[in-house]
Amino acid sequence: MTNKMNANTPLVAPSKTPLLHKILIMISIITFVGGGLTGVMTYMNVGYGAHFYNDWISSFLLAVTIMAPIGLIMMVLANMLVKNLLPNSSELKKNLVVSVFMAIIMESLMAFITAANNIGFAEHSEFITAWLAGLLAALPIGLTIMLTMSVTVKPKLEKFLKS
Questions:
Q1: Separation CA 85–CA 67 (nearest Å)
Q2: DSSP letter (8 states) at residue 150
Q3: What is the Cα–Cα distance from 65 to 117, expressed in whole angstroms?
């Protein structure tokens, strides 16, 4: 018994993931993480009241607009720095170090933007208190998200984005 192959059968090329799908995945991750963290920070700054959702949305949009380019640059720099400082470490250890570094830097910046949006700079001590309250409330959440993502999501996401 032999199977005949048709000479006209085309070879199946691996399909590339459409750019739109990649963009939508990144937007959903940014919305989930950034929205959640700015929500916690906004709550710590102004509490839950009549203007909470407006304050939250404006803080989120401002944070995303400012942080998207900074986050990409910081991620590249952090990865390069960790690869140079820890050349013999496993990929998992490098990812964990980058995740902690990125969580601290990005959440500090996000807390700054949220406090600036919600409180303003008129009273320096009130601004610093709001920035610190937002940062300290969201940092454990952000670290948990970043560490979880670096171990489980990041390798799959990198593979998906390269496809």
A1: 25
A2: I
A3: 13
DSSP tally for the chain: helices H, then strands E: 5, 0
Residue type at 158 in one-letter notation: E
| Domain residue limits at 94 | 37-162
Alpha carbons 30 and 34: distance in angstroms, whole number: 5
Task: Label each residue of 75-89 as H, E or C.
Answer: HHHHHHHHHHHCCCC
| Residue 11 falls inside a structural domain | no
Long-range CB pairs of 88-92, under 8 A, 24+ apart, other chains included = 92/151
Of 59, 64, 52, 55, nearest in space to 38 by CA = 59
In a domain, 145, yes or no: yes
Domain count for the chain: 1
Query: How far, in Å, CA of 130 to CA of 66, rounded?
Result: 19
pTM, entire model: 0.76
Per-residue model confidence as pLDDT tens digits over 98-146 = 888 888 888 999 999 999 999 999 999 999 999 999 999 999 988 888 8
